[in-house]
Structure formats: structure tokens, C-alpha cells
Amino acid sequence: MKKIFTMLSLCLWVFASSQDNITITLEGQVDDFSSGASAHQVVAPSSASFDIPFDVYNNGTTTQLWRITRYQVSVPTGWADGLCWGHATDPFGGTCFSSSQMNTNPWTSPGGSTVLFDIQPGEHGKMKVSIDPADGVYGSGHYRYYISGLNAAYLDSVDLIVDYLAAVKPLKETVGVSIVPNPASDYINIALNGVESINIKITDVLGNIILKEVIASSKKLDVTEFKSGVYFIVFEGNGVKSFSRKIIIRH
């Protein structure tokens, strides 16, 4: 009897975990960032506004009318954010809302017929998030985006964490970095001069963090799994100003 109850509980848990039939990915990618998965973390390239596009898939069997609720979990004072939400086939990118329109926390997209649209089974909506860190206001912003039906019941969500890095001290003149080969296809060698160790983050052009490492003197990194394109290596360490170097991966 206990075994039957355990199996029933497991089946109910699996059903409850998957009944929303929603998958949330970065535009054009496959990793699922929906509820239960890890947050998507990016480094702000500057204090200027930048976009992070998500695809929200309807994996169910019925047509959906979804709304988006933005919740600022923890955001530095002065930062602004916006949102565009529309069908994947909308050539205009959907309906966009500015930070002045999204002036409550949480904020939910309107439910009128002019902004709602059908997402049929197998289709997806596009949610483009815009983040605008305040100039000189460094820190980390934590945002959560809920997917809900017309009754505003939350069905799923995705978390976004944005890091805007601060300069600590002027860069030491004795610090040197060598990155070879560049362009690279299989590996890169990073060699340091003037510091014992330093933290690095490798990001793509959208600010998505691809890799984190601690470099002591030198390090050989495998880049065979990186997609061809432009990446940035952000260097951070005690007593030095954060700086970056561009690398190109070609396969």
C-alpha cells in the first residue's frame, strides 16, 4: 500500500510540474529557463539600454491568450526597464511598453483585445525585455517575468539577473594580458603579467555569460563548443579596474 501511495504521489508531482505546457527560451536557443530552471544571468555591456529576447512556447493542445507580469525582485534605484510582447509572426515585434507605463511593481500587460493575441499549439510569443541601468549606479538587478492567462493566474515564469559592473581602482600599469590565438577555433591561451590571479567572465555580444573562471598566471581554455562569433572576456580582480578583451571564434 505504501509503495502504491508513493508511486501515486510521484505521478501527481510530475503532472503538476509539467501541466502548464510552457517552455521559455532565449530567442533562437533551446535551453529552458522557465520555472524550476536556473535564472538567466547577463552582464550589462554599459549603462545604455539593451535588450534580451525570449521565446514563450505553447506546448499544450489548446489556444492560449497570455499576459506578462513583470516583478522587480530587487533592482537598484534609478534603473529602468521596458517590455515588448507579441506573436512570433508579428513584423512589428508586438506591443511595447515603456518604463513610464510599467510604473507599478508588479506590473501586468493589459488584457484588452487590442493587445491580446492567439498562441496556438506549437506556436510561441516573443517577449523582448529592455534593461536600462542608471549611469554610475552599479549593482545587480533581479527581475521575474510571469506568464498568466486571462484570469491573471500565474502559469510559469523566468528569472533574469543583470549585473552592471563597477570600476574598483585604476588599472595597474603593470597588468598585462595576452590572448592567443585570436581568432581561435579549438582553444585560447590566456597569460597574465602583473597580477597573481584574476576572475574572468566570457560573454557573447548580448551579454550572456558563457563561462566563468579564475586565472592564475595562465590558462588554456577549450572553445570547441562555442558557436562561431564575437565574444568578450571580462577581467575583474582586487586592486584593478574591470576591463575586457574581444575574441573571435571561427570554426
Give a description of the structure.
With 251 residues, the protein is mostly beta strands. The protein folds into two domains: 2-164, Immunoglobulins (Immunoglobulin-like); 176-249, Sandwich (Immunoglobulin-like). Helix content is 7%, strand content 47%. It is built from one helix and 17 strands. The strands form four sheets. It has a five-stranded antiparallel β-sheet with strand order 1-3-8-5-6, with no helix packed on it. Strands 2-10-9-4-7 form a five-stranded mixed β-sheet, with no helix packed on it. The longest helix is centred in the N-terminal third of the chain and has 17 residues, at 2-18. The termini are far apart. The relative contact order is 0.17. Residues 1-19 and 168-173 have low confidence and may be disordered.
Key phrases:
single chain; 251 residues; mainly beta; Immunoglobulin-like; 5-stranded antiparallel sheet; 47% strand; elongated; disordered N terminus
CATH topology value of the largest domain? Immunoglobulin-like
Order of strands in the sheet with most strands:
1-3-8-5-6
Radius of gyration using CA atoms only? 22 Å
Shape, please? elongated
Tell me the count of domains.
2
Largest sheet: 5 strands, antiparallel
Structural class: mainly beta
Give the termini separation.
58 Å
Q: Uncertain segments of ≥5 residues (pLDDT<50)?
A: 1-19, 168-173
CATH architectural group of the largest domain: Sandwich
